[in-house]
Amino acid sequence: MRWMRWTLGAALCATLLAACASGPVRRVSEPSARLQQLTVRADGRWSADLRIENFSSIPMRFDEVALALAIGEHAAGTLQASPSLSVGPESADVISVVLTPSAAAKLAVADALANRRSVDYTLKGTLAATPDEGKRRSYEIDRSSALSPAPGLPGVLR
């Protein structure tokens, strides 16, 4: 009986030690993207600061971005980039993408800036990312939000 208790205790200790040796959990979660800032440039094009968020517990490298941008109900164009950006676990980083917007979207943003009001936007498309020591994968993005004029910064929506 005593021998059986000792064996059971040793097996329990070995199991606990094995569980500790496995290291932290490697969780890969869907990333996200959103517009952090939209700046109307002097040449009429836009500079879109796109915030890429990594919700995984491991670093991810973002290789390609292809997101259709709509301002209000107007298609503005596609935010397309190949940033090769490495984002740490549960972190975010920003890339800038220059876009030549459609005339209707340009007018909607100009109206929002002139009247100091917010404007709705949507992003739809894909982010291609590679988890640390993993295979590349495309993630679908479908986000809706709004941007408002930045006080003291003409031509900037945040």
Give the radius of gyration. 23 Å
- How many strand units? 9
Tally of DSSP helical segments:
2
Q: Average pLDDT across residues?
A: 91
Percent helix range: 10-25%
Q: What structural class do the secondary elements suggest? A: alpha+beta
Main sheet summary:
5 strands, antiparallel
What low-confidence regions span 5 or more consecutive residues with pLDDT below 50? none
**Distance separating the two termini:** 72 Å
- What spatial form do the alpha-carbon principal axes imply? elongated
Overall domain count = 1
Determine the CATH topology. Immunoglobulin-like
Strand content: over 45%
Mind telling me the CATH class?
Mainly Beta
Order of helices and strands: HEEEEEEHEEE
Architecture (CATH level 2) name: Sandwich
Keywords: Signal
Signal peptide: 1-21
Domain Late embryogenesis abundant protein LEA-2 subgroup: 50-131
InterPro entries: LEA_2
